[in-house]
Design the sequence.
């Protein structure tokens, strides 16, 4: 914990001033995600007028506790923003000096105002000197009841084609990822892994299905949505079959029932901790097996899809490198101790199909809102919290525009992370639909900018991969790794051409 806090404070202090608000917040989020423990951003001087010493009185502690109590953040994990008013950021005597006149005023009005201000001050700091409980607040995590677990056990025991969709919430404490993995393996149900659950089963596990999720959901007779919600990613629930029995588990009731009774209907809606539920489910179904042809059918569909990826990887592209091939080579080269940070449009969505995180809590992406610009902050938090990990960042060139300048930070503070930029000279995910729809590429075009040179200008190492170095991809990746191991941040600028890999997928 000490290291975690130390790393966070360092990450908060070192990023460039004009980006620090955003970058600090993201690095705190990355630390929370990669360690499974809450990360907090220490925000001194969030705005110029707030700069100055942090308060030495107890008032901010008092305010923070009140906020935490009322916001109910313990049930689900999410970023929480707490803004401290300026008048409680400073010590009592400083505020008193600013607020209350030093000499008692003479006139009636002056005395009235003074009386009002003294009262106001007393209210503001009321209770600030009373002892407050130290340490984290006790968490209030809802749990599935034994009856709910039993009903789910019965539903699953009768299933012929069960399927589990595991999402980020499954990785929240208190269940350690190893225990969750054992539970999922014991359960023996084929599963799709999303968010921070990606990588839970390692590489090429027979229960881990990666492709054709919609088709699998249509065929499954029982689906367990374990920390996965029916938002746009599941087509608001429409992707589920009306004849399937749906079990949904989530700590948050509102999230759990999102779009239910409109496009889908749960058979069992369990408001509770996902990891603990999975462990209990596995215990309740110990010894149960399902016909192997269902899992085999899903694996066969995976193999077919992956064969089409191989074909796409070998297709010639009009110019530069084939991104599918490049990403396949990244997948082959990625070390076991890596953390992947992904930030961009089509390039990183392609990577999501081809590159596998090597373990749970090792994949950081922009999340449901797809907010570009998370890369550098995530990389900073990940590397500081897990210094022994190799942090590999996959960027689109458009997204990298938000993160380039943080290479200055990485250089100054000797934070060796690696950025691989899929440079297709554009906001391709947007132009892919904009051009056919509106007939114009306006605001989507970029240039084949020398990002490796820009990084070198900031003092980082820069490498270029282009058509001329087509047979050097793995070598250049190894060179980048070596430079990182020698303590340097590295940018590999990979010039890529166009493929049809992402045609037909969402482009917003
Ligand atoms: C902050 C932010 N701005 C805009 C968008 C919309 N958006 C989604 S993908 C994308 C294009 C990203 O371009 P790039 O990173 O180069 O990836 P590519 O699609 O070219 O591989 C844009 C602009 C967004 N998701 N977040
Ligand atoms: Mg691009």
Sequence:
């Amino acid at each position: 914990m000490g290291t975690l806090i130390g790393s966070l404070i360092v990450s908060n202090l070192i990023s460039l001033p004009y980006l620090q608000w955003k970058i600090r917040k993201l690095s705190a989020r990355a630390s929370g995600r990669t360690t499974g423990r809450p990360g907090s951003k220490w925000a001194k001087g969030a705005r110029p007028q707030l700069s100055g010493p942090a308060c030495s009185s107890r008032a901010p502690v008092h305010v923070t506790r009140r906020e935490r109590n009322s916001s109910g953040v313990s049930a689900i994990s999410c970023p929480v923003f707490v803004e401290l008013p300026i008048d409680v950021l400073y010590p009592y005597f400083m505020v008193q000096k600013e607020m209350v006149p030093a000499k008692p005023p003479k006139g009636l009005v002056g005395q009235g105002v003074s009386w009002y201000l003294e009262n106001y001050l007393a209210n503001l700091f009321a209770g600030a000197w009373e002892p407050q409980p130290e340490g984290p607040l006790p968490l209030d995590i809802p749990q599935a009841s034994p009856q709910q677990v039993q009903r789910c056990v019965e539903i699953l025991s009768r299933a012929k084609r069960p399927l589990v969709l595991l999402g980020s919430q499954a990785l929240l404490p208190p269940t350690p990822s190893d225990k969750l993995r054992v539970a999922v393996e014991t359960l023996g149900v084929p599963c799709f892994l999303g968010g921070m659950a990606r990588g839970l089963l390692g590489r090429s596990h027979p229960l881990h299905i990666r492709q054709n999720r919609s088709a699998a959901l249509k065929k499954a007779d029982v689906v367990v949505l374990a920390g996965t919600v029916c938002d746009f990613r599941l087509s608001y629930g429409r992707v589920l079959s009306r004849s399937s029995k749906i079990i949904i588990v989530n700590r948050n009731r509102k999230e759990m029932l999102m779009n239910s009774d409109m496009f889908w209907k749960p058979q069992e809606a369990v408001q509770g901790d996902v990891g603990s539920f999975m462990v209990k489910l596995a215990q309740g179904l110990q010894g149960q097996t399902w016909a192997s042809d269902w899992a085999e059918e899903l694996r066969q569909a995976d193999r077919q899809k992956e064969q089409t990826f191989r074909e796409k990887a070998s297709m010639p592209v009009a110019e530069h490198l084939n991104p599918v091939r490049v990403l396949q080579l990244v997948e082959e080269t990625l070390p076991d101790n890596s953390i992947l940070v992904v930030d961009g449009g089509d390039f990183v969505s392609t990577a999501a199909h081809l590159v596998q995180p090597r373990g749970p809590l090792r994949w950081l992406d922009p999340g449901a809102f797809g907010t570009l610009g998370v890369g550098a902050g995530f990389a900073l938090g990940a590397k500081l919290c897990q210094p022994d990990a190799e942090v590999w960042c996959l960027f689109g060139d458009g997204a990298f525009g938000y993160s380039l300048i943080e290479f200055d930070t990485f250089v100054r503070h000797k934070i060796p992370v690696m950025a691989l930029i899929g440079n297709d000279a554009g906001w391709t995910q947007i132009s892919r639909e904009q051009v056919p729809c509106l007939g114009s590429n306006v605001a989507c075009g970029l240039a084949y900018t020398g990002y490796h040179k820009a990084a070198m200008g900031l003092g980082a190492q820069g490498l270029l991969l282009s058509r001329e170095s087509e047979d050097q991809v793995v070598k250049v990746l190894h060179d980048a790794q070596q430079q990182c191991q020698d303590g340097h941040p590295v940018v590999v600028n990979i010039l890529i051409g166009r493929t049809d890999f992402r045609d037909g997928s969402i482009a917003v």
Notes: The chain has three domains: 2-124, 146-300, 314-495. Confidence is low (pLDDT under 50) at residues 1-13, 43-73. The radius of gyration is 26 Å. The first helix runs from residue 2 to 14.
